[in-house]
Design a protein that fits this description.
- The N terminus is likely disordered.
- The protein has a six-stranded antiparallel β-sheet with strand order 1-3-2-6-5-4, sandwiched between helices.
- By secondary structure, the chain is α+β, with helices and mostly antiparallel strands.
- α1 runs antiparallel to α3.
- It is globular.
- A hairpin with a 5-residue loop joins β2 and β3.
- The chain has a single domain, classed as Dynein light chain 2a, cytoplasmic (Beta-Lactamase), CATH 3.30.450.
């Protein structure tokens, strides 16, 4: 795993997420521009591409939810054939992102993502 961690709290938040069985990596991403703030990813995971995807989908999802009048998104889970992307937005404008195997324990990852969002708030 590579680690880029400008702050100790960031590294700790990512450590807790990546320790969950089935998680292949975690990132902190700027929701505004999709730039990676910190990451811990297994080899072969394209962090910048996933960060851009997470930021773009978050923006679109936020707009759609506002239009629908259902409030703000607290957690989202995108399931694909070869894995999953799980995201929790922090109040600071940072997205806490996990890349996981298809059979990961989503509830446990969600819990650690929420803790990570509190740490970067």
């Amino acid at each position: 795993m590579t680690a880029e961690s400008p702050g100790g709290g960031y590294g700790r938040a990512l450590d807790l997420i990546t320790r969950v069985r089935g998680v292949r990596g975690a990132m902190l991403v700027s929701a505004d521009d999709g730039i990676v703030v910190a990451e811990q990813l297994m080899e072969g995971i394209k962090g910048p591409a996933l960060a851009a995807l997470a930021a773009s989908l978050t923006t679109r999802l936020r707009r759609a939810m506002e239009a629908a009048g259902v409030g703000v998104s607290l957690f989202w889970h995108l399931q694909a054939e070869q894995g999953a992307l799980l995201v929790v937005p922090a109040v600071s404008g940072i997205l806490v992102v996990a890349v996981a195997e298809p059979d990961v324990n989503v509830g446990l990852v969600r819990l650690e993502l929420l803790r990570g969002a509190e740490a970067v708030a």
